[in-house]
Amino acid sequence: MGQGLWRVARNQQLQHQGFSGQSYLTREHGRRIATNNVSNTTHRKQAQGGIDIYHLLKTRKSKEQEGFINLEMLPPELSFTILSYLNATDLCLASCVWQDLANDELLWQGLCKSTWGHCSIYNKNPPLGFSFRKLYMQLDEGSLTFNANPDEGVNYFMSKGILDDSPKEIAKFIFCTRTLNWKKLRIYLDERRDVLDDLVTLHNFRNQFLPNALREFFRHIHAPEERGEYLETLITKFSHRFCACNPDLMRELGLSPDAVYVLCYSLILLSIDLTSPHVKNKMSKREFIRNTRRAAQNISEDFVGHLYDNIYLIGHVAA
């Protein structure tokens, strides 16, 4: 009721001022048209200000043609840069339109090396009929085979000449590849300790804080889900490698590989204690320092306290 009376009073006011409903709508329509004209003018000015980019994105074979820019009309360097952002599937689709560009060897070489950072075949003279596009397909098939059966996958790579039959070459391939299933990889490394030894030596822990180095180690070599001989082997190999990478720090702190081994186990147990929802009473910093120094008496209290802070703030070392 109140809104209706307000509208009546407002209409009477407009009529008294010489405005009708029609003239008011006409004036409002005119205002919107003027605003749109100003907006379009501004847009044209902006387009003229960036005339090179605007015309580059609108490049077509003819004025009537609509659709995506034709890469063949661009400089080759720019076309290759655009195509380098595509994955293998999209690049195969692009080759249906731009066959010469999308089949370029440099593009497929980049795809191979960005996914599989090291292969023995990279350092050899390519055989007759070699192409990086074909190599990509073989690497992809071999990775899928490895994720189903690691031994068959490695044998496939060797049969195609992609990998040499050498523990060091296999270790480099694993270290530089992120497409392998970590569960299958863990089984394979447990069986191939020679490959595991070479894989550990590829890590460089120089000037790294112990918990951070342990996280990096377990990102490449995943820890088993349960304690056992394999976990002990991993921690032992890590401890020796960490000491070898930081001899000055070990002398300064008075740490040996055995002491680092104890610290690693303490960090893993602390990680479980602080992150597990099943543990209600979390270990305090004072308790961690006391328990750790009982096992390794030569370690300073401040250093052990920094270890606790790192786990508390960053999280699990083997997550």
Descriptors for this entry?
Sec7_dom_sf, F-box_dom, mainly alpha, guanine-nucleotide releasing factor, 319 residues, elongated, disordered N terminus, guanyl-nucleotide exchange factor activity, F-box only protein 8, single chain, 18 helices, Arf Nucleotide-binding Site Opener, domain 2
* Low-confidence parts: 1-10, 17-29, 41-51, 60-64
Mind telling me the CATH superfamily name of the domain at 203-318?
A: Arf Nucleotide-binding Site Opener,domain 2
Characterize the biggest β-sheet: none
> Would you tell me the structural class of the helices and strands?
mainly alpha
Shape: elongated
What is the helix content?
Answer: 55-70%
> What is the level-2 CATH architecture name of the domain at 203-318?
Orthogonal Bundle
Question: How large, in whole angstroms, is the Cα Rg?
Answer: 33 Å
Treating each run of at least 4 consecutive H or I residues as one helix, how many helices? 18
Q: Write the element-wise H/E pattern from the N-terminal end onward.
A: HHHHHHHHHHHHHHHHHH
Q: CATH top level of the domain at 203-318? A: Mainly Alpha
For the secondary structure, the number of strands is 0
Mean pLDDT equals 79
Question: Distance between the terminal alpha carbons, to the nearest Å?
Answer: 67 Å
What proportion strand? under 5%
CATH topology of the domain at 203-318: Arf Nucleotide-binding Site Opener, domain 2
Protein name: F-box only protein 8
Organism: Meleagris gallopavo (Wild turkey)
GO molecular function: guanyl-nucleotide exchange factor activity
Domain F-box: 68-111
